[in-house]
Amino acid sequence: MLKYLAPLAALLLVAACNSKPVDDTSAETITLPKDSLRPDFKKHYDAFKVKGSFVLFNVNDSQYIYYNKEDVTVPSSPASTFKIPNTMIGLETGVITDENFMMKWDGVKRRDNWDQDTDLKMAYKNSTVWYY
């Protein structure tokens, strides 16, 4: 299963559904190679009424597959997409034993729903950054 973890984590990190730049005034355009454009992926974003972009590198064909390539070139926050690969890594390596794995809160005030001892279920639900 570990051999599938790294490609999945990479895919999730680039497939964020947040098209708002981190800082509109300093966003730079990144030049990406011309490869396969997939405008047909739009229906998946429209179904959930979200805007976003998608990039996948096909290692077998050495080809990038894009949806909304222009949006891909604008730096943006990955939002909560980091939770998925970090959860998988924690479970795969045994650092996190199961959904009830509890971590002790360090006492630093952040947000009301974060400021408590937290298990994986609560951390995922509340996007508790310190847990990850």
Q: Could you tell me the mean pLDDT?
A: 81
Shape: elongated
Structural class of the secondary structure composition?
Answer: alpha+beta
Largest sheet report = 3 strands, mixed
* Overall tally of structural domains: 2
Uncertain segments are: 4-24
Number of helices in the DSSP assignment: 5
Terminus-to-terminus distance: 21 Å
Along the chain, the helix and strand elements come as: HEHEEHHEEH
Rg is 17 Å
> Going across the major beta sheet, what is the strand order?
1-3-2
Label this structure with key terms:
5 strands, alpha+beta, three-stranded mixed beta sheet, 2 domains
Walkthrough of the structure:
- This protein has two domains: 1-16 and 78-132, no CATH class; 28-76, no CATH class.
- It is 31% helix and 12% strand.
- It contains five helices and five strands; from the N terminus they run αβαββααββα.
- The protein has helices spanning 2-14, 42-47, 69-72, 83-93, 120-126, and strands at 36-37, 54-58, 63-67, 102-103, 118-119.
- It is elongated.
- It starts with a helix and ends in a 6-residue tail after the last helix.
- Residues 4-24 have low confidence and may be disordered.
Summarize the structure.
With 132 residues, this protein is an alpha+beta fold. Helices cover 31% and strands 12% of the residues.
Could you outline the blueprint of secondary structure elements for this entry?
Layout: H1 2-14, E1 36-37, H2 42-47, E2 54-58, E3 63-67, H3 69-72, H4 83-93, E4 102-103, E5 118-119, H5 120-126
